Amino acid sequence: MIYKQLGNSDIQLSEIAMGCMSLTTNDTASQRLLQTAFEKGITYFDTADLYEKGENEKLVGTAVKAFRKDIAIATKVGNQWRPDGSGWDWNPRKQYILDAVEASLRRLQTDYIDLYQLHGGTIEDSMDETIEAFEQLQQEGKIRYYGISSIRPNVIRAYADRSSMASVMLQHSLLDRRAEEFCVPFLQDQHVGILARGVVAKGLLADKPSAAYLSHNAAEVEATQEALQLLSDTDRTSCQTSIRYTLASGVTAAVLGMRTLSQLAECVAATDVAPLTPKEMSLLQQCNQAAVYTQHR
User: Fold this and answer.
1) pLDDT per residue over 235-273, tens digit each?
2) What number is the average pLDDT over the span 81-87?
3) What confidence score (pLDDT) does residue 22 get?
4) Do the beta carbons of residue 51 and residue 104 sit within 8 Å?
5) H helices present in 109-232, as ranges
6) Other Cβ atoms within 10 Å of 295 Cβ, number
7) What is the CA angle 42-45-247, rounded to 5?
């Protein structure tokens, strides 16, 4: 496993990271999966208070308790469940964040959160208030670092200008290269860590049949799948080639939703296969037209 520093923090995290949202409600199987992930070298586990109304945090907290000090736990805040459970509302206000972190700490069974992330956000939010909350929690030792989970260039730029955030989680894959146009180079220049989600595009870059995805129709997705297959062999699967593409695109870590032990093994092995050559990167980039963000500029 390869380990990298997350932005301007002192967190060293595995370049293959565990996205916990997709874990099943089978506690025994999910706990085994998380423990095996650690044994295979994964040291970054990402959850959110939104997932399963906090039950996902409880699951993660229980599973990693034995090796808590050897890993980085990340969770998110900003989506407040309604009292009747009918849905959630956006709430990035300071007091809500200060209250929500206490509940997350209890569910995760820990005294501190390594990376606390704002789970969304728009340019209309009271960012200074949100940043005040994160800075206060950092000073109190309840969180080590903070970041945002956003794909909006204007929000990313504003937080980079006004805060000491350590990271941005954004969507990136061979079928979603929007971040390459502005976000990735900008964040690299700002020394902010980049966490990529959606790396295998809901399985379309792994083993699922072609289907429309974002701005790409099914035929374009199929052409991308064929390009992946050309660069894959017995030593590197399409899934692993997809992961290597994202890792070669400037991100710190690929946060992957792995549901089974076999998926875990395949994803972890991506760190050991040969990196993509410049020629292979070019071939993959030519297989579809990269989109750019047209909103939230």
Assistant:
1) 889 999 999 999 999 999 999 999 999 999 999 999 999
2) 84
3) 87
4) no
5) 127-140, 153-162, 183-190, 218-230
6) 7
7) 60
Do residues 188 and 169 lie in contact, with contact meaning Cβ atoms separated by under 8 Å?
A: no
What pTM was computed for the model? Answer: 0.93
Check residue 81 and give its pLDDT: 83
Enter the tokens of residue 143.
């969180």
**CA 153 to each of CA 10, 87, 177, 185: distance values in angstroms, whole numbers, following the listed order:** 25, 27, 13, 12
Secondary structure tally for the chain: helices H, strands E: 10, 12
Judged on CB neighbours under 10 Å (0-12, 13-18, 19+), 154 is middle
Distance CA 97, CA 74 (A): 15
Task: Extract the tokens encoding 250.
Answer: 């400037």
Q: Which residue has the tokens 């469940």?
A: 81
- The kind and range of the H/E element at 253 are strand 253-256
CA distance 175 to 204: 9
Q: What pLDDT shows up at residue 164? A: 95
The dihedral region occupied by 113, where left means phi > 0, alpha psi between -120 and 50, and beta the remainder, is beta
Rounded to whole angstroms, the Cα distance separating 106 from 102 reads 6
Please give the single-letter amino acid code of residue 254: A
Q: Measured between alpha carbons, how far is 200 from 265 in angstroms, rounded to an integer?
A: 15
* Nearest alpha-carbon partner for 15 in 27, 33, 30, 3: 3
Residues acting as catalytic residues: 51
